[in-house]
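Appendix B, record 7
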Amino acid sequence: MKRNFIFSAWLLCSFFLFFGCRTTTDAPRPKYVFLFIGDGMGLAYVTLTETWLAARDGEHGSGNVSFTSFPVTGLVTTHSANRLVTCSSAAATAMSTGYKTNNSMMCVAPDTTTTYTPLTYPLHKAGYRIGVATNVSIDHATPGAFYAHSVSRNRYYDIGSQAAATGFEFFAGSGFIYPVGRENDQPDVYRQLADAGYRIVRGRDGALQLAPDAGKTVLVQNEDKNTHALPYAIDRSDDDLTLPLITQAAIRILDNPNGFFAMIEGGKIDWAGHDNDGATVIREVLDFSDAVAIAVEFCKQRPDETLILVTADHETGGLSLGRDGSYTLRPTAYDERTHSMAYPATEEEREAVREIDKKAHVAWTTRGHTGIMVPIYALGAGSERFAGKLDNTEIPQRICALLLPE
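Structure tokens (predicted):
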């Protein structure tokens, strides 16, 4: 297994360098790359959020989140190796390694023995600092695919226990789902990280006090908070860690003259989509937009050295803006909701949410994922490489072609 892992790292770099899209020698090359993944964030999610922004201000039309004004846009196909409708771990594997795998697998080939290496490893070897961040747990499907490999995305302890050996400079999220295993009988993931030289920083105060010279850092929610995910934006308290704060902390730790790569996931957009909860979706997209805006401010200081990519792994819920033959959309109906759907939700609560959907003239087709293409938005050095239609496997190929030129 280890030999396959090392070999695939060599193969990945070789593929990217010799067959990936190449830039001209006089084109600006980025040193600092942000890959923002809005989990489940289909185009309808973005449109609903921007329409809500306009309606809130009494306007008819579209407002703007931070990334829709990026000069380069494209569409991304998302199918996995064995399904037209992907799961998050297969999609994240494609976006981290350049290879397709089966649903529920993470950086392991469909044959279950060959391992695929995330681009974070060759980039780290080349001197780039690496950050993996999310607003769900660090061992979840999307963040896990940027540092770990597993035949099942549900092996949370096995995934989380691989973080310490990476040497990557920054991890962030709510925490780890099973830091000492499902049966509480495994070596503590936090102890493994500490033994590997990581500083464990907790909560909003810890994020705000984080110094640029803090060294290798793991930023997680306070111990008295939920380790499975940060609270939804619509539910959060003033003392909660947030995705924008995590993004600020990532920049503080990763910024250096040699460059960095940061994957930052808005994981709870997807969770709200699984609940068909439009009000919570809007607030999660806005929170994600605020995180992207922080990277945009960084880019303004180094426009010829920074690349920001914003995309999704898939669409969730089959969100439709317009229903029942009506040509009306009333997104401000979602203002009636002041909290997310409880888990597990009662049928009475689900019915209340469905009634708001009817008032807003919004509909859903599923509580799962769909197979439609998702958008990609690009800003900065090398952004032109991400225009048009591309497959999700091409995202890491093109990033590596920019950061690891011949």
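Remarks on this record: The chain has one domain: 2-312+323-403. Confidence is low (pLDDT under 50) at residues 14-25.
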